[in-house]
Protein 1
Amino acid sequence: MAEGDNRSTNLLAAETASLEEQLQGWGEVMLVADRVLRWEKAWFPPAIVGVVSLVFLIIYYLDPSVLSGVSCFVMFLCLADYLVPILAPRIFGSNKWTTEQQQRFHEICSNVVKTRRRAVGWWKRLFTLKEEKPKMYFVTMIISLAAVAWVGQQVHNLLLTCLIVTFLLLLPGLNQHGIISKYIGMAKREINKLLKQKEKKNE
């Protein structure tokens, strides 16, 4: 068991080091984005909502086709991938890179690797469920996809995408400030109350 844990830890460290090397040119930008997403200042959340809303309003106004939208998005990613490593050191100054910043950059890369591992783990569990309990897998997938299709039919796709992107960008700050855990705790307490009331009625 200990050998397996050590192997997993070593693999995590190797993946983190590899990711750090790949994203070294994005270090300064990632640190700024990290501060924004964790809401280090009170005006960061409304700024995130405002920027995302502005971007989607521009998309709504231009009304590009799917092919044009995807092409522009990929073109933007290519430009960012080329320009950011060149411009970031000039804007932020690589000589100001401190040990604390390097440690935070390492933590960010480690969190990204862990998140990627969780996603792969959920994907593998889904296929395990398909092999072990095909009926449950079938019913779960049909109900989930039908619910998503119904929501997509009721809400405009651009508005729905805007809400999803906004939520995902606010999620790190919600976790950082304990807002999600707070409401999950409240929901658990309410469910426990309902279960206790049901048990008393049955008695």
Note: The mean pLDDT is 86.
Protein 2
Amino acid sequence: MTSKESYSLWAQPKGRMGEQLKAEIAHLAERHGANPFPPHVTVLGDIEKPRAEMEALMEQLAARTKKYRINFTDVTRGSIFYQCVYLLVAKDPGTMAAAQAAREVFGRTTPPYMPHLSLLYSDMEDGERLKVVDYEIGRLYGENSSYDTLMVENGYDVDSISLWYTPTDDTGLRSWCLVGEYELQG
């Protein structure tokens, strides 16, 4: 099966927070037989345009988007593969403005934006998802946490948006790759 050309725009954590979330995603992937992936909040996903057009539109988006902060509000679960277990992100003005700017630049209308940072991609049953949520609350915020797993911060600053090649039919994530990173305005 051939993957369709599809891209996503990500706000990725850097530094210590990025490393911690990368390790947590890898831990959960190993624990549940899933594939690890880079930590990110999707600003806009599943965009089907040629790569050259994507890169030109990314320049436009970066020029009109101000730096902002992502703040986590909860560990929760969804009902689809790409939203199995995640950190819910506050709908703060900067987060929502970046998402709206992306939709305008790329000419997309989408369902209401629900910013989140996935911790696990899986098709597991809802009862299992709930167990993972409880486990993660304990590891990241609760009495079961250690200095290795306790969240170093409850969010991160976004100073760039990354363009990733992410064919959604590749649930093994093998073809996913970084295309470029675009610095945001002041």
Note: Residues 4-183 form a domain with the Cyclic Phosphodiesterase; Chain: A, fold (CATH 3.90.1140.10).
